[in-house]
Amino acid sequence: MNEVIFYNVDRDNLCETNYFDGIVDILNQRISNYSIIITADHETLPKTKHRKIVILGGEETGIAGLRPYSEYNDVIAVFRFYNVKGRYDNKYVFPIPPGYNCRSNDSDMIRMYPEKKLSDRDYDIFYSGQVLGCRNELVNRLEVLSNDYNIYSQVNPSFRRGLDIDDYYRFLGNTKICVAPTGASVDTFRYVEACGSGCIVITTPKDDLWYYHNTPVFFIDDWSLLTNSYIDNILSMDIDTLQDDTLKYYNRCLSTEAVATYIIQNI
């Protein structure tokens, strides 16, 4: 049996608790006699019964570098969120996607809603996110595009203070295109959430990470390029096939099953 420790984090208030729990459940089914530590602390770790597998979330700045916990000889590997070059080496520190948010406005998510075909969804484009300077251009473009498309766009005062979480996922499950800008980090919950909801995703370029390989999403260099012709080109495609491709990609690279499998392959 594995030992599971949420270290120096409030498990019951984490945005990613459901994601962590899903990964741990699968690890517990497939491996044993490890100590699985979920933490945002890149300096210290608790004493454990077994050799440590560390899942490092919440460390968006990259301060930890490539050798966090270097004084701990029993750390087998570190699997971290928020990845750009220099934060992982695929030998000791491995990149994993940031998962999905399960809380907002003191509410908990029920589930994702990917079932509705894109061709039957009501909204053309969806965006709900906090105020950040790097997103101003996107917000402005969505306002212009709203003259020609059915768009739900909402700017929120802060993180997890927009739509109630289940309403958020219901909107994702009823929209064709979700735009996923960067925020405090290149990796975003929204990217994973939109793919898991079966949306077509438009996002900015990413690093060469395993979970971005062979992705069916659309990369845009600058949000000023989000024009009518850009949107029309996407919506003229076989969008239901695009949805199938996105859900297959989510299951292959972003889901708890995919991440747990990746962890097992690299310990």
Description of the structure:
The chain has seven helices and twelve strands. It has 267 residues and is of the alpha/beta class. The chain has two domains: 3-96, no CATH class; 104-254, Glycogen Phosphorylase B (Rossmann fold). The strands form three sheets. The protein has a five-stranded parallel β-sheet with strand order 1-2-3-4-5, with no helix packed on it. A five-stranded parallel β-sheet has the order 9-8-10-11-12, with helices on both faces. Strands 6-7 form a two-stranded antiparallel sheet. α4 links the parallel β10 (175-180) and β11.
N- to C-terminal distance: 16 Å
> What count of helical segments does DSSP give?
7
Enter the CATH topology name of the largest domain: Rossmann fold
CATH architectural group of the largest domain: 3-Layer(aba) Sandwich
Strand content: 15-25%
Order of helices and strands: EHEEEEEEEHEHEHEEHHH
Mean pLDDT: 93
Give the neighbour order of strands across the main sheet.
1-2-3-4-5
Helical amount among residues, as a percent range? 25-40%
Shape: elongated
Indicate the low-confidence ranges by residue numbers. none
The value of Rg in angstroms is: 19 Å
Describe the largest sheet.
5 strands, parallel
**CATH C-level category of the largest domain:** Alpha Beta
**CATH superfamily name of the largest domain?**
Glycogen Phosphorylase B
Key features of this structure:
Rossmann fold, five-stranded parallel sheet, alpha/beta, 2 domains, 7 helices, single chain
What is this structure, in a nutshell?
The chain has seven helices and twelve strands. By secondary structure, the chain is of the alpha/beta class.
